[in-house]
Amino acid sequence: MLNVNSEKNALNFLNKKIKLSNWKLAVEVNGTLLVSSTEQTKFQNISATGFSVVFSKENLVLDCKTEHDSDAGTIRMISTLENRSAKSVLIQRIFIMDCDQIEGFCSAQDEVVALSLDGAISKRSVHDIRNPEPAKVWTNPLYPVRSKIKTQFYNRTKKLALQVGFVSFQTANTEVEYEYSEQKGIARLQAWCDYGGFELKPDAKMPVETFLVSIGTNPHIQLENWAMEAAKAIQVRQWHDAPIGWLGWSWVDPFTVERYEDIVLRNAKAIRKRLAGFDVNYIWISIGNLADGNPGDWLNWNKKSFPSGPEFLNTSLKNQGFTWGLWCGPFWLCALCREKITEYQDALLKNSDGSLYVVRPEWQFGVAGEMPKEKRPVMYALDPSHPKSLAYMRDVFTTYKKWGVRYYMADFMEAGAGNTSRFPYADHFDKALVAGAQVYHNFLKMMRAAAGDDTYFLGSSGPTIHNAGFVDGQRTGNDFGEGRAMYPDSYFYPATFVINSGAFWTGPQLALQNQAAHYYTHRKLYINDSGNVLTVDKPLPLNDARIHTTIHAMSGGPTMIGDDVDRMDEERLTLIRQTLPRPKEVAFPVDLFDSPSPKIPKIFQRKIEKPWGRFDVVAVYNFEKEMLREKIEFARLGLKPDVQYLVWEFWNTEYQGGFQNCFETAVAPGCVNIYRFVEDTGRPMLLATDMHLLMGEMDIEQCVWDEKDRTLRGLAKRPIGQKGSVFFHVPKELRVANPAGKWIAKDARDDSLIVRCVLDFVEGTADWEIRFAGREEQRTMNELDLT
C-alpha cells in the first residue's frame, strides 16, 4: 500500500517483499526545484485513493490519484498540476518519484539486471546494474542508467522483478534514472516528466503522465502488462498482415551501376514468376525518386533514375498487384536544397545562437555521394510545430497519395522528436505545445491524416514507443540485411554488401538482440519490425543466410527482400519461401534476463496452437567460435517435465529422438538450429515439414488421427506449383500398411519409424493418408497401395 509520511512529507510504498521509503515528489519551475520534503510544502486531502501536494512558494498544487492492485503488485499514480497563482510559470520537470530508501529488493551481493529504453534505435541490452558500461551506446552517454519511459529490473538471485516508469507518454518526455551503491544495491530511483519550460498560465491545469510501479516475480509478465497498459492510453493502429515486399540494394546498385527504374521493373516481374502466390505485394523505392537524391526536396522527381515518372510507375506496379512505397525523412532538409532552405528559413530548428540545427553531419547519397567526403552536405530539420513545416509536409504526403504511394519508411524521426530522442532543440514555434512529445505527436497526426488511413507507416531511426498510435510498424533494431551504393568514401565501397561479420551494424546479432528486448510491444503498440531486410543470396555464407532467415521467420513482422530476385540462386530463394506466409506472433526470448551485456539472448520460442494440435518451435543461435552445448530444462520452456517429447531439427532435417525433463542443444559455431517439440502420445505423430520454418503453423491445415481405422490423414496448403515434405514419427509397435510412395526409415536407437510423405501442390492444397497395422500382423499384397 502507498501511504503518506506526514513527518517527512514523503510517501512510503509497502509490499510484502519490497519497501520504498522517503519517496519525495518535486516540481522544477522557473529554474528552481521545489521538493515535497521542505517546510514550504505540505500534503493535503490524504485518502486511500490519493493526496495533494501544495508547493506554497509558487502556489502550485500537484493532485495525485492512486490506484492499487495488490494481486498484480502495482501502484498507479494519475496526476494533475495546477497553477493557483496570478502569474504564469515555466514548468521544466515534474518528479513523480525521488526515492532513496529501497529495501528488500536487492543487496550488493545479489545479481541484478535491468532493461532500459534509449531515445533512439540502438543496441538494447539487459545489463548488470553493477556494471552498465557494456550496454552503453552512442546515442546517450547516460544510457542505460537513465532510461526513457521506464526501467525493468530483475533480481536473478531472489527472483524478484521491479518495474518503474510511465504508461502514458503523449505530452512530455519521461525518464527514469537509478543510482547504484556497493552497500545498498539500488540506492536511488528517480522518475520525471520533462516539459521543457512549458508555460502554465494562471488558474490553469496540466495533466502529468501516468506513473506505475510494479513488484512481482516475473519481469516478462511486467513488460507484457506494461504494453497492454500503455496501449490503453493511445488509439493503437491495428494493421492485419505485416507487409512483405522488395527493396533490393544488397546485390544491385540503383545509383552507380544500373538505372533504378529498370531494376524495379525487372524484379517486380521476377517476383510474380519466382515467388508467385507468396503474397510479396510491396515495392519499396528508397531515395532514388528524389532529384539529385536530396532529402527535403520531396516533390522534385528524379527523371534520370525514373524517366517514365511516378504515374507510370504506379500503373505498372499496380497492374502486377504491387503497392509501392517510398523512403522519407519527414523532418529533413538537405543543405544542397538551397532554395528550400531560403523558403523555410524561419521554419527550421535552430541552436540557441540562432544557427541552424544540424541533425546529420554528412549525407552520402545521390549527388552528395559523388562529392569529396569533406564537401558533402549536412542535414537540417524542420520545426515540427511551425505552420509552414506542417503545410509543406501535408502537401508532400497528399501528393504522394495521389501518385498511389501507400507505404512509407519514415526515417530519421529523431530529427523532430526533440528531448524524447537525441536532438533536444533549443526552441520551437508553437508554445501552446510541449516541446518534444506533444510537438512530435502533433506532426505525426498531420502526416498520418495526409497519407491516408490505408497507408502503412514504418517508423525508424528515432524514438520507438513514442510512435505508437501513429505508425503501423516500428523498426526496433539496426539496418539489418541492407546494402549500400558504391560511392567512394562510403561504408561498403567498393562493394554493396558486407559479409562474415555478425556483429557489424548491418549484421544479425544486433537485430536479434533488439528483437528480444522489444518483443513485448509487438502487436500491442505496433507491429515490431525486427527483421528489416532479408538478404540470403550467395556469396553470403549458407549458415549466415539461415540465421537471417530464422530471425525473419520468428519475428512475426514484415520483410523487405534485399536480394535481386530476378537473378538470385534458386537454393537461396527457397530460404525466402520457407519464411512465408508470415505468422503474426514474435518469438519469446527465453533467456532475455539471463543474458546481460555483452551476452545476447540465444533461445527463442514459439508456442503454437492449431485446431489439429499444439507444438513448440525453439530456435537456438550460436554466434561464438566454439560449439554451443546447453541443457534446456523443459520447465524453462513451459513443457511438462515428466512427459516425453519428440524433437526434430529443421535445417539438418533430423529426428533428434524422444526426451523427458530436458534437452541438450548442440549448435555449431556461427549457426542456428530450429527444434520442433511435440508431445509423444504413443500414436503416429506429425514431426515436421520442410516447407516453412515454423513446421506446421503456416502450412498444415488438418492432421487427424482415426483410432478405429489406425489412419493418419492430413491436408497442407502452399502456393500452386510448390512441393514439399511432411515427416512423421511412428511407434515401434506399428508399421505402414500403405508404403507405396512413402520414404520409411527405422531409427536404430529405439526401433521407431520416421516416414516422409512428398506433397505436390498442383492446386494449392495437397493431402496425405497413412494407414498403419501392427508389426506382428501378416502383411498381404492386398494391403499394398500400388498407385
Structure, described:
Helix 3 (309-319) links the parallel strand 19 and strand 20 (323-328). 14% of the residues lie in helices and 35% in strands. The mean pLDDT is 95. It folds into 4 domains: 2-232, Distorted Sandwich (Beta-galactosidase, Chain A, domain 5), CATH 2.70.98; 244-588, TIM Barrel (Alpha-Beta Barrel), CATH 3.20.20.70; 602-680, Immunoglobulin-like (Sandwich); 683-787, Sandwich (Immunoglobulin-like). It has a 9-stranded antiparallel beta sheet with strand order 5-6-7-8-17-14-13-10-11, covered by helices on one side. A 9-stranded parallel beta sheet has the order 27-26-25-24-20-19-18-29-28. Strands 1, 2, 3, 4, 9, 12, 15 and 16 form an 8-stranded antiparallel beta sheet that branches. It has 787 residues and is mostly beta strands. Helix 5 (387-403) packs parallel to helix 6 (437-451). It contains 9 helices and 45 strands.
Short description:
Helices cover 14% and strands 35% of the residues.
Key phrases:
787 residues, mainly beta, Beta-galactosidase, Chain A, domain 5, Immunoglobulin-like, nine-stranded parallel beta sheet, 9 helices
Architecture of the largest domain in CATH? Alpha-Beta Barrel
Name of the CATH superfamily of the largest domain: Aldolase class I
Counting H and I runs of at least 4 residues, what is the number of helices? 9
CA-atom Rg in angstroms: 29 Å
Mean pLDDT: 95
Largest sheet, in brief, is:
9 strands, antiparallel
Looking at the structure, the CATH topology of the largest domain is TIM Barrel
Question: How much helix, percentage-wise, in residues?
Answer: 10-25%
Query: Any idea how many domains?
Result: 4
What structural class do the secondary elements suggest? mainly beta
Proportion of strand residues = 35-45%
Low-confidence stretches: none
Cross-sheet strand order for the largest sheet: 5-6-7-8-17-14-13-10-11
